[in-house]
């Protein structure tokens, strides 16, 4: 593998940097999304139980101590307890919008690596082909041995760039599916908490 990297020439380095940067973002997003995932139905029942047993303040404390987007939405709704339904809905929607933005944070960087890595690879391919033709010109010969080095460099940079893009694409697709599920859970629980707060005793 190291030999292939060296044979690929100078353009292998920016592709490697793009890969390392992309993996760092993937790690950050994976950690964040894992912490954001929870059993939302159980959490809703826990909030109801705390509210019914100990009141609004304890329910707010419970939400504040629980990580995740759904807890933030519940906290926004509980903070407007006793207000008109429209105010509660607006607070919950605003909190949901902020949490959606947090879930999608840094995804653009993964998409950037998906776009840039193959472009770097293709640029390396062009440079490799130019080198091959320069070698032909210098040697005044078109034998395979003369052009092998340039063509090898061209193919290696393309392959490496595409592999990096595929790794990032798989990661992005996985994260998008997780985010979609979290957003659906948020929307479902938003409706439930608004209805519950309206029916609960003040």
Explain how this protein is built.
- The protein is mainly α.
- It has helices at residues 2-7, 12-36, 40-54, 56-64, 69-79, 85-103, 107-139, 144-199.
- Helix 6 packs antiparallel against helix 8 (144-199).
- It is rod-shaped.
Give a brief rundown of this model.
By secondary structure, the chain is an all-alpha fold.
How do the strands and helices of this protein lay out in sequence?
Layout: H1 2-7, H2 12-36, H3 40-54, H4 56-64, H5 69-79, H6 85-103, H7 107-139, H8 144-199
Helix pairs in contact: 2-7, 2-8, 3-4, 3-8, 4-5, 5-6, 5-8, 6-8, 7-8
Strand content: under 5%
Report the radius of gyration as a whole number of Å. 27 Å
Categorize the overall geometry: rod-shaped
Q: Taking all residues together, what is the mean pLDDT?
A: 83
Helix content: over 70%
Describe the main β-sheet briefly: none
Structural category: mainly alpha
Q: What's the total count of β strands?
A: 0
How are helices and strands ordered from N to C? Answer: HHHHHHHH
Straight-line distance between termini? 67 Å
- How many DSSP helices? 8
Oligomeric description of these chains: single chain
- Uncertain segments of ≥5 residues (pLDDT<50)? none
């Amino acid at each position: 593998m190291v030999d292939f990297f060296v044979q690929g020439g100078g353009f292998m380095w920016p592709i490697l940097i793009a890969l390392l940067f992309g993996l760092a973002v993937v790690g950050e997003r994976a950690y964040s999304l894992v912490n954001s995932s929870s059993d939302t139905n159980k959490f809703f029942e826990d909030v109801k139980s705390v509210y019914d047993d100990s009141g609004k303040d304890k329910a707010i404390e419970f939400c504040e101590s629980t990580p995740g987007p759904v807890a933030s939405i519940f906290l926004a709704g509980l903070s407007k307890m006793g207000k008109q339904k429209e105010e509660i809905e607006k607070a919950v929607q605003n909190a949901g919008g902020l949490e959606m933005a947090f879930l999608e944070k840094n995804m653009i960087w993964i998409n950037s690596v998906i776009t840039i890595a193959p472009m770097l690879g293709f640029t390396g391919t062009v440079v490799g082909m130019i080198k091959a033709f320069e070698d032909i010109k210098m040697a005044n010969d078109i034998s395979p041995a003369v052009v092998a080095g340039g063509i090898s460099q061209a193919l290696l940079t393309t392959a490496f760039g595409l592999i990096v893009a595929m790794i990032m694409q798989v990661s992005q697709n996985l994260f998008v599916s997780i985010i979609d599920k979290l957003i659906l859970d948020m929307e479902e629980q938003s409706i439930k908490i608004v209805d519950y707060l309206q029916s609960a005793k003040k």
